[in-house]
Amino acid sequence: MENFADRLVRACAEKDSIVVVGIDPRLDLLPSSLVRSALKTHGETLEGAAAAFAEFGRRVIDAVAEFAVAVKPQSAFFEMLGPAGMEALREVIGHAHQAGLLVIADVKRSDIASTAEAYAQGYLGEVKIGSTVLRPWGADAVTVNPYLGSDGLLPFIRCAKEQGGGVFVLVKTSNPSSHELQDLIGAPKRNPARGGAPGRPIYERLGEWVAEHAADLMGASGYSSLGAVVGATYPEQLARLRELMPRNLILIPGYGAQGGAAADVKCALDKNGLGAAVNASRSVIFAWRDETRSAAGGEKRWMDSVRAAARKMRDELNEVRR
Amino acid sequence: MENFADRLVRACAEKDSIVVVGIDPRLDLLPSSLVRSALKTHGETLEGAAAAFAEFGRRVIDAVAEFAVAVKPQSAFFEMLGPAGMEALREVIGHAHQAGLLVIADVKRSDIASTAEAYAQGYLGEVKIGSTVLRPWGADAVTVNPYLGSDGLLPFIRCAKEQGGGVFVLVKTSNPSSHELQDLIGAPKRNPARGGAPGRPIYERLGEWVAEHAADLMGASGYSSLGAVVGATYPEQLARLRELMPRNLILIPGYGAQGGAAADVKCALDKNGLGAAVNASRSVIFAWRDETRSAAGGEKRWMDSVRAAARKMRDELNEVRR
Prior knowledge:
Two copies of one chain form a homodimer.
Chain A lengths: L3 H12 L3 E5 L8 H11 L3 H19 L5 E4 L1 H5 L2 H17 L3 E8 L3 H12 L2 E3 L2 E3 L6 E4 L5 H14 L2 E7 L6 H4 L2 E3 L12 E2 H11 L11 E7 L4 H10 L3 E5 L9 H4 L10 E5 L1 H4 L16 H20 L1
Parallel strand pairs in A: 1-2, 1-12, 2-3, 3-6, 6-7, 7-10, 10-11, 11-12
Antiparallel strand pairs in A: 4-5, 8-9
Helix pairs in contact in A: 2-3, 3-5, 3-13, 6-7
């Protein structure tokens, strides 16, 4: 399979878009007719809720496919429904591929050695059963958490290299409390700098690690499929991290509902407006919920609303990409 | 539901054991007759492999139930088989409960706000679908990763409080590269200590956070269901963290195959030999693999071997608990 970074960069250029749409279904926020219909067929069961999630995911994908380059299903919401939810996640991944979209599985997994390898093979790669080779999830890229150190990251990089997959390391996350650990000024114990120089923020250290390993997954596009997650809600740190990671893809969450704006992400883009992708979830997939009482039609025409929100996001971002 | 710490401490006292057995199935390491039989029934499919995992998990549970207080299924290996693997995970959890064991789902999840809440509700709690309330996974406790800060931890604590569940925060993990991030000496940016005092290791800061929040999940046993994961492979840090976290449960992985020994964990136990639980995976569940050519019988009597390894581990640990 072709290098993930190359596939993403090409999709961004061809579609003239850097939009990623997060698929974060929540039963109490879905269109009520869609939920009613799924529960009518399957009963008030985990399978019923999962059928609603799968249907919602498919329709969101159909609505945004023209304006987005990728979707980012949030595993937590699917896992919340047990194995049936996981089956819905797999259906959503398959549907996104049929619609020509890349899939970034937002799993934020963290483990080590053979266990990290199992996650990587499952989400990005293949599993051999007897003499049969199967792709359990078939995602194009995953998000991973770096707290366990390189033992937890290198197995993902190795698998991504074999499979043409992408790996986005959480470096500076978009949430309010991300500073608690990620912004600490850190230095190794024996570093002589400790007595004088101030050390560097943890997120910078991780950014350096990600930059150092860029070559392992470098694409012909000049970008590496080893990427970083950096929140749109922290534009200063985003600018600094782009300096430190000139060749890594950056996945930028926190756009829209979380407060990030188009101007905040410009610093992560190259002169062609490429090298980063921006995710919004709620502000796109639940756009219609704010319109229920308005002339736009609300729930009745919710797919139109999702489609319009994705187009608007693309256009806003393209303003700063020129 | 009764507080998790109280349930765990009581089980340790009643069974005179602090053993947790990790359920880490891997197709190439399972008893070959068991795999053959599952693939014969289900074909060379993910379902076939998942059936082998479920059967292996059930039999390991039956073999160790007398000597262990809990099992710790490693989600990665089940997820590697897609949704079918997740169904096997659910079966293993249910079987452990039937066998009277607690279940710590080793998921190491990390996310924020409503997303963290979804993970917590899924693994520890309940989901409401229409007017029906269901328990998707039914684990007693989960492992969580702290990289995202308290936004990512508090939703788990809230759910655990409602449900009588347990939460083990990764503080100092057992793997060789855990020092890269966890041992950095960290200080807040504006801390005046920065010019003089040396700051503290990241794992100590997290240990303090865990200790500060112990009261949120305190049990009648005097232990909190807000626990920490600290590897047996780092006995000095374990001793230091026990000082910092006198009332938190400690889950200690890294025993056996990873190199931790009974003497290394003594410092985490109170005068009654309680307050911590020790996990081994490979050295118990694959004990028979080292014996294949020996008089012990190897694969043919693999359950006997697993049972003997669990008993031996219990006895070794009880030596240092007295």
